Amino acid sequence: MIPQQLELRMYFFVPYNISPIQQAIQAGHAALEYAHKYKDDKQFINFINTWKTWIILNGGTTNNNDVDNPGTLDCIFYEILEHDANLKNEMVNFSIFKEPDLNDALTAICFICDERVFNKEDYPDWKNYVIDELMNRHPDVLTQDKEELMERFPELYKEWLNKIGGEKNAFLKDLLKDKKLA
How far is CA 55 from CA 16, 51, 112, 134, 178, in A? Predict the structure, then answer.
C-alpha cells in the first residue's frame, strides 16, 4: 500500500514519430484504459483526487506487434510483462492502448508511480545509494556495476529496497532511467 502523503504521477510512453497532439491523445486513451481497469484501486483514487500530474515520455518506435522485430515501445511493454511474471506479488498496474487507425499498433503505455521512483534526491538510485553509504570505506564501489554491488552488499540492497518501496519501484526506477520527454 502506498502511503497517502507520497506524491504520485502518471507516466506514459508514446511513439516518437507521431505529432505532439497525437502523443497526448494516445496518452489520454491509455489513461482512460487505466481508469477503467483500476477504478477501485486506492493508488489510482489518490492520484485522481490529489495529484493529476502526467509525464509523457518518448517510447521510441512501435512495430505493429511484430514479435520478431519489436519496436522500442513494444520492448518496454515486454519488460513490464516480464517483471510482472517474475514478481507476481509486486506487479505494476499498467494499461496500454493500441490505435485502430494505425493498424492496431501499440501507441501508449500508462502506469502510476510514487515519488520513491522519480524523486532521486530523497530516494537515490541503487548505485548512488551504495556510493553515498560506502564511498569512504570502499572506494572501489565506483567501478562496480549494479549487479556486482547487489551481490557484494545484499543487506544494503535490502535496506535500499525497503527505503524505495520494494522491487516494483526498483524496476520502475530502472525503466524510467535516462528516458526523455516526448
Answer: 14, 12, 10, 33, 14
- For 156, the grid coordinates are 544494503
100 occurs within a structural domain: yes
- In tens, the pLDDT along 86-136 reads 988 899 999 999 999 998 999 999 999 999 999 999 999 998 898 888 877
Do strands 94-99 and 54-58 pair parallel, antiparallel, or not at all (unpaired)? Answer: unpaired
* Predicted TM-score (pTM) of this structure: 0.91
Tell me which residue range forms the domain holding 54.
8-118
Q: How far is residue 60's CA from residue 75's CA, in Å, rounded to a whole number?
A: 10
CATH code of 65's domain:
3.40.1490.10
Q: Note the pLDDT tens digit of each residue in 145-177.
A: 888 888 989 999 999 999 999 999 999 999 999
Question: Strand 54-58 and strand 8-14: pairing?
Answer: parallel
Indicate the number of domains in the chain.
1
Contact 57, 182 (CB under 8 A): yes
Bridge partners, residue 10, by sequence? 54, 112
In a domain, 61, yes or no: yes
